[in-house]
Write a structure and sequence with these properties.
It is a single chain. The protein is an alpha+beta fold. The chain is built from 6 helices and 7 strands. It has helices at residues 5-11, 26-32, 34-50, 122-127, 129-148, 155-172, and strands at 2-4, 18-24, 55-61, 67-74, 95-97, 99-105, 114-121. A 5-stranded mixed β-sheet has the order 2-3-4-6-7. A hairpin with an 8-residue loop joins β6 and β7. The longest helix has 20 residues, at 129-148. The relative contact order is 0.10.
Length: 252
């Protein structure tokens, strides 16, 4: 079975995918077994696929954490709900072979809450139904058994855990800092004044600091103290000593 990829993209929003849904309670699964519920689902799925219909068959189990087993026909391991992403993998005008996929949805199955496995091409599914059916039931049973081992807290335990987590987060949250609004005064525009040319250092002192010129001290003595000018002492011309004529004493 083959289909043009663009047709799948168009069929999903137009709800042209044949959808089959079967709902079971945990008690019914426990009583009749998962294989019985899957067998019923597979009967409807096979009939639809044999009619060349793109098909989605759901088995919903209403456990505390809901579980959904889903069989889908598609050209790649991508849920039909995400068919608008097919352009990332195919030329939409291309034709591709259709396969059967088993999808398990549950919060406990893995981190993405979804697991998808390719089972077989549609042609193989139709030509070897018994073997492919057994393969599907075995794969689904393994996932179911795993999910039964996941422990879930009671409502009381869950509430206590949530309360403890809230208290832990509140304790770890730092106390809000008190916002103190410091009014920042606008920065003054500092206009750089042109530096005045350095004044030629004047030797004049400022009036306040101007030192009075030293008074020329005139050494005038007072009249009393005035020393009389030294009299010019005229040394009287020594009169030549009277030339004493030595009287020539005539000795008689």
């Amino acid at each position: 079975m083959e289909i043009q990829v663009q047709k799948i993209v168009d069929m999903v929003p137009a709800e042209q995918i044949r959808t089959i849904t079967l709902t079971k309670t945990p008690a019914e699964i426990k009583k009749d077994g998962l294989a019985a519920a899957l067998g019923e689902l597979l009967d409807n799925f096979e009939a639809s696929v044999a009619a060349n219909e793109m098909t989605q068959a759901n088995l919903d189990i209403a456990t505390e954490v809901p579980v959904a087993f889903r069989l889908e026909t598609n050209v790649i391991n991508l849920p039909l709900a995400d068919s608008n992403k097919l352009y990332q993998f195919f030329d939409l005008d291309a034709t591709a072979a259709v396969n059967v996929y088993l999808i398990v949805e549950s919060e406990d199955i893995n981190v993405s809450h979804l697991r998808i496995d390719e089972i077989a091409p549609v042609d193989t599914f139709l030509s070897d139904q018994d073997q492919v059916r057994a393969q599907i039931i075995q794969a689904a049973q393994e996932k179911w058994d795993f999910l039964q081992t996941v422990e879930h807290p009671t409502p009381e335990e869950k509430a206590a855990a949530e309360k403890a987590e809230a208290a832990k987060q509140a304790a770890a949250k730092p106390a809000p800092k008190r916002r103190t609004t410091t009014r920042k005064s606008p920065a003054k525009k500092t206009t750089a004044r042109k530096k005045a040319p350095a004044k030629k250092a004047a030797t004049r002192s400022t009036t306040a600091a101007k030192k009075a010129p030293a008074k020329k001290t005139t050494t005038r003595s007072t009249t009393a103290a005035k020393k009389a000018p030294a009299k010019k002492t005229t040394t009287a011309k020594k009169t030549p000593a009277a030339r004493t004529r030595a009287k020539k004493t005539t000795e008689d």
